């Protein structure tokens, strides 16, 4: 009788261990399959799990009106932000404050943001699509912010929509506006 009880206990333990092993293998397989699907650009999951994370921006087009900033120049930055606290700090700043503090911000947060800059003159023109290269492999960009240095006291700041892969920025006489063309 002892042999039967021992054999029964042995089989029950082995069944539990076997079931746990099978569940573990199935979970690893499912995770691997999901990763494969998320890496695929053409799959449904590839669209959900963007390789860039919080910000999809890849290209920018600039359009300048000839009467931009009362026929003056405009300094413009697109800031790609990688840290939540820095994003909150920048979203409280007007363009005037941002440009006044930019040197100190880059010293304080050298690896927490990437800045693309343009100096624009008042001349009617359209600058073609420019690809933005910023590191997305080792850090996830949380957001993008545009600051433009116009004459005046308005904020002149706009956050870039996270799902926009391309944006067109139009600089007009007294402000700028951003369009997100449909993805093709």
Task: Report on the architecture of this protein.
The protein is α+β, with helices and mostly antiparallel strands and 184 residues long. The chain folds into two domains: 2-48; 59-179, Type VI secretion system, lipoprotein SciN (Immunoglobulin-like, Sandwich). Helices cover 35% and strands 27% of the residues. The chain has four helices and eight strands. It has helices spanning 2-39, 44-48, 84-90, 95-108, and strands at 59-64, 74-81, 113-120, 125-131, 143-149, 157-160, 166-171, 176-179. A four-stranded mixed beta sheet has the order 4-1-7-8, with no helix packed on it. It has a four-stranded antiparallel beta sheet with strand order 3-2-5-6. Strand 7 (166-171) and strand 8 form a beta hairpin. Residues 4-9 and 17-52 have low confidence and may be disordered.
Summarize, please.
The protein is of the alpha+beta class.
Q: In CATH's first tier, which class of the largest domain applies? A: Mainly Beta
Spatial order of the strands forming the largest sheet: 4-1-7-8
- Report strand %: 25-35%
Total count of strands: 8
Note the total helix count: 4
Distance between the termini: 74 Å
In CATH terms, the superfamily of the largest domain is Type VI secretion system, lipoprotein SciN
**Rounded to an integer, what's the Rg over CA atoms?**
26 Å
Count of structural domains: 2
Helix content: 25-40%
């Amino acid at each position: 009788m002892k042999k039967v009880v021992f054999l029964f206990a042995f089989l029950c333990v082995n069944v539990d261990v076997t079931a746990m092993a099978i569940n573990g293998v199935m979970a690893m397989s499912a995770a691997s399959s999901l990763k494969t699907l998320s890496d695929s650009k053409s799959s449904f999951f590839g669209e959900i799990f963007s390789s860039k994370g919080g910000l999809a921006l890849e290209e920018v087009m600039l359009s300048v009106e000839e009467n931009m900033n009362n026929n003056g120049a405009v300094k413009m930055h697109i800031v790609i932000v990688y840290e939540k606290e820095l994003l909150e700090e920048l979203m409280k700043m007007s363009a005037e404050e941002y440009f006044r503090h930019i040197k100190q911000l880059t010293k304080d947060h050298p690896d927490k943001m990437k800045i693309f800059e343009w100096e624009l003159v008042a001349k009617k023109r359209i600058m073609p699509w420019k690809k933005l290269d910023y590191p997305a492999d080792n850090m996830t960009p949380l957001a993008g912010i545009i600051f433009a240095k116009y004459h005046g006291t308005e904020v002149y700041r706009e956050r870039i929509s996270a799902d926009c892969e391309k944006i067109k920025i139009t600089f007009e006489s007294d402000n700028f506006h951003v369009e997100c063309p449909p993805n093709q």
